[in-house]
Each structure stands twice: as C-alpha cells, then as structure tokens.
Write a structure and sequence with these properties.
CATH architecture: 2-Layer Sandwich
CATH topology: Alpha-Beta Plaits
Shape: globular
Radius of gyration: 15 Å
Structural class: alpha+beta
Number of helices: 5
Number of strands: 4
Strand content: 25-35%
Distance between the termini: 28 Å
Order of helices and strands: EHHEEHHEH
Largest sheet: 4 strands, antiparallel
C-alpha cells in the first residue's frame, strides 16, 4: 500500500456478503485470506474486512480506477467471488464508488 489517501481519482470497492447462517466463519476465513495479497497490490490504499452477524463487508480504496480494475481481474479475487463464496452465501453484491470531494472528516470540521 502506498500513495496519498485521497485524490480526485480515488475509487472504493465494497463487497457486501450475506453469509448462510452455518457458513459465517467459512466466509470470514475466505475473505480474510484476501487481505494480505490485496495490501501488496500497486494502487491499493486501504483494504478491510468488517462484519456483524451474517453480514460481511470487504471494503477497499484504490488510487484510481485502473488499479481497482487490475484487482478485480486477479485470480484470487475472481476465485473468491465466483467459486468460493457463492455456495456459502445467500447474497453477494459488488459495488464501486467515488468519494465526494473533498472528504469531510472530524479533522476538517474543527
């Protein structure tokens, strides 16, 4: 991970997962395995795994759309989304989002 935390080109990825009740730990384990290799990608600024109950979210920030598109084509990501997760989940939704300029934070307000 390297580069500035925000530019006008910054793009976010959110993968919303609704795990089947008996597979929550399997989903978390599979998603967790993607954290280390994703952090090593060129253009990855941030990548996190968060969850509450059966809701699991992978959220990441890339320096630009090209960097994110490269991530989406990597074998480990494709395997996670297309092979590993589907039998363990009720629903998977992948979104890409742009941040509002400039980012509003507690530091920028005070």
């Amino acid at each position: 991970m390297q580069g500035p935390l925000y530019t006008a080109d910054t793009i976010h990825l959110m993968i919303h997962i609704k795990a089947k009740k008996k597979h929550v730990q399997d989903v978390l384990a599979a998603a967790y395995q993607t954290i280390s290799p994703t952090h090593k990608e060129e253009g990855c600024l941030e990548y996190r795994l968060i969850h509450n109950g059966r809701s699991v979210i992978l959220t990441g920030k890339w320096k630009d759309e090209m960097s994110l598109n490269m991530h989406l084509l990597l074998q480990f990501h494709l395997q996670l989304i297309e092979e590993t997760l589907p039998p363990l989940c009720k629903k998977i939704r992948v979104q890409t989002l742009k941040e509002i300029e400039p980012p509003i934070t507690a530091l920028s307000l005070g």
